[in-house]
């Protein structure tokens, strides 16, 4: 089928929960994808920070093929080898001790919310259940994760929301300290706000947050669904500042494109949830775990976090140079290969121009272009992307 046929069938039979582009992607390799009409695109979206090792990395493909011939799924009533190997590998390469596996970032954050409330219930009783998150945060779309999300635009029409959440400005330690009450049990934060416009937390902020948690005996939870697995230039974003959470969540880049999420916890937090208190039928099944094992092996073996740091700096320097000559750019910010270009104008026109030229980028918060390419993207492809973005901004400036 071509793009138009796929689109029409989708409009007829798929719920309209996304504002989709007018083409269908059918193939991917490395940093490139092709649509149903054969057009090739340089992918600087990578499945929204999912394809960290690129599209269809040979080691990931091979691991999926091998596991699919052995055992695709078994219940978590039984152990499966890829799952326990993955849990060990995550623990060995992070501050965590144990893992709970699920299928998505939303599910991982739901697990983190339940863990925090259960921990506080067992230690302090039923009235200490409040979780503080940040304004403009994004934690998912299930009811609990949606309530944790500090953006009212996603919450409209779904009230009443889950009680026990409070929002404070990001990177504002004084506001956070003021918001803590005797009912507070945990803080849930993104080391870099992704959907909120690519805003990194400062070292001073996270260090202060950690001290507050120690002082008030609160659990510190990090949402690393988008920032984890090398995206920011470290394997996990908390490693930039040496501020270790009690638990953190992963998904997106973990499975190389195969759906899998995880809650990683350490210390007392690792042993809070017992049998029957949380579960996921497909969580960490053999196929998804095998894909994640291969992905994590590639990330570490090919030193992709280091590549993300170096290429991110290269790209950020190019963007800052462009900013000097183009007045439409308000700010360039981010970490590693998680970069935001905030504009003085709406970003959709720039996004659409780039798409026509064969470059996929993403616009968040209406005016911020988000660049989240595969971590193993080639330097010549970064230069190609910069040329197209520069051309788009020049044309937009000329049309004002």
Structural domain count: 2
Record field, number of beta strands: 17
How helix-rich are the residues, as a percent range? 25-40%
Count of alpha/pi helices? 12
User: SS-based structural class?
Assistant: alpha/beta
Low-confidence stretches: none
Molecular shape: globular
Multimer state: single chain
Indicate the CATH class of the largest domain.
Alpha Beta
Radius of gyration: 21 Å
User: CATH superfamily of the largest domain, please?
Assistant: Type I PLP-dependent aspartate aminotransferase-like (Major domain)
Q: What is the topology, as strand order, of the major beta sheet?
A: 4-12-11-10-7-5-6
CATH topology term of the largest domain = Aspartate Aminotransferase, domain 2
Largest sheet: 7 strands, mixed
The fraction of residues assigned to DSSP E strands is 15-25%
Description:
Helices cover 38% and strands 18% of the residues. The protein is of the alpha/beta class. The protein folds into two domains: 3-56 and 303-398, Alpha-Beta Complex (Aspartate Aminotransferase, domain 1); 58-301, Aspartate Aminotransferase, domain 2, CATH 3.40.640. The strands form four sheets. Strands 4-12-11-10-7-5-6 form a seven-stranded mixed beta sheet, with helices on both faces. A hairpin with a 2-residue loop joins β13 (329-335) and β14. α3 runs antiparallel to α9, α4 runs parallel beside α9 and α10 (304-325) packs parallel to α12. The chain starts with a helix and ends with a helix.
